[in-house]
Amino acid sequence: MNDPIIRINGLTKTYEGGFQALKRVDLDIERGEIFALLGPNGAGKTTLISVICGLVSPSGGDISVAGHDIITEYRAARGLIGLVPQELTNEAFETVWNTVSFSRGLFGKPPDPAHIEKVLRALTLWDKRNNRLMTLSGGMKRRVLIAKALSHEPRVLFLDEPTAGVDVSLRREMWEVVRRLREDGVTIILTTHYIEEAEEMADRIGVINHGKVVLVEEKAALIQKLGRKQLTLQLHTPLAQVPELLAPFSLALADEGATLVYTYDSTAREEGEHGIAALLSTLKTANIRVKDLSTRQSSLEDIFVDLIKEGA
Fold first, then answer.
1. pTM for the full model?
2. CA torsion, points 104, 106, 109, 113, in degrees to nearest 10?
3. How far apart are CA 230 and CA 233, in angstroms?
4. I need a surface site. Which of 112, 116, 121, 251 has the fewest CB within 10 A?
5. What percent of the chain stands above pLDDT 90?
6. Residues of the chain with CATH 3.40.50.300
7. Tell me: the pLDDT tens digits for 158-188?
8. CA-CA distance, 232 to 165, in Å (whole number)?
9. CA–CA gap between residue 13 and residue 115 (Å, rounded)
10. Which of 43-52, 166-175, 250-259, 294-303 comes out lowest in average pLDDT?
11. Within the chain, which residue ranges are assigned CATH 3.30.70.1560?
């Protein structure tokens, strides 16, 4: 595994009044990955990002960005970070070109029209470079936010709810933009309420709840590890109850006895004494005829809901 580009150790944040927003968070973000941070409202997502980006002071713990401590080497650490907030709040009368160029200057970078042009072209904003922000659509404004964050050539990009409030087609366009950025070597951390966004985009997923990171896992491994599979069997003849012979399989009856539902861990072997083959054989022994069957694997959303319930 590569040397992480962001290292967080024992991070805490307690606000005035005693509210503890972050509780000893330990987290490493790998170079060049897309990391999705999921959590319900109030879980600590925004506070965590704000602390890393230097917008909120931590109460305890250490954070480094590419080896630079965010407190003692603030300028070096912050210069490596681009932050895309949810909303464009000002500069309505500025042009796209000027507002993106100005953002670059804020980080002490010398003017570089070639870089600004590259960013605007990559985000399909070049034809809008002389337009005032107030004349742009919501989707184009969102792209301008990304352009501003990329103006100073950061190696880490934080996207806070990047597709909130945009339609599905634009959301997919934004996903393509993010993928291209990753291909250019930019590490991307996104917070999202759209589970499908994390499922579509992320290499790894972290779940935060009540100020604690409760899980960090590669997406595919997470779905395989915590996902459940469900086998639904439609019966020729409804059952009044599950026969004793089938008790070891933990089956449930549905549709007034016309359907048997078998739920099992996706990591469990599908063979063996409690596997699907054994179940079908036992059904035959019990003289229960199956009319049709289907399988379903739990989605990331199912897993996320279960994790939040467990941590509640």
1. 0.73
2. 30
3. 10
4. 121
5. 44
6. 6-224
7. 988 777 766 777 778 778 888 888 998 999 9
8. 36
9. 37
10. 294-303
11. 228-298
DSSP three-state, residue 255:
coil
- Token pair 């996207």 in the structure block, residue: 159
User: Helix (H, G, I), strand (E, B), or coil: what is residue 270?
Assistant: coil
pLDDT (tens digit per residue) in 22-61: 999 999 999 999 999 988 878 898 899 999 999 999 999 9
Side chain identity, residue 274: H
Place of tokens 């070597």: 185
Among 8-12, 256-260, 297-301, top mean pLDDT goes to 8-12
Amino acid in position 56: V
Helix ranges restricted to H, 2-155: 45-52, 74-79, 96-106, 113-122, 138-150
Domain 6-224, second-level architecture = 3-Layer(aba) Sandwich (3.40)
H or E segment at 231?
strand 228-235
Report residue 3's pLDDT band, with 50, 70 and 90 as the boundaries. confident
Phi/psi at 261 (5° precision): -120, 125
Structure tokens at 13: 């944040």
Distance CA 293, CA 194 (A): 31
Mode of pairing for the β-strands spanning 187-191 and 34-38:
parallel
> CA 80 → CA 75, 83, 103, distances in Å?
9, 10, 14
The residue type at 116: I
CA distance 290 to 284: 9
CATH code at 228-298? 3.30.70.1560
Provide the angle, in degrees to the nearest 10, between the axes of the packed helices 300-311 and 219-226.
70
Sequence-ordered list of residues with C-beta below 8 angstroms from that of 190, at least 6 positions apart, any chain: 34, 35, 36, 37, 158, 159, 160, 162, 178, 197, 198, 201, 202
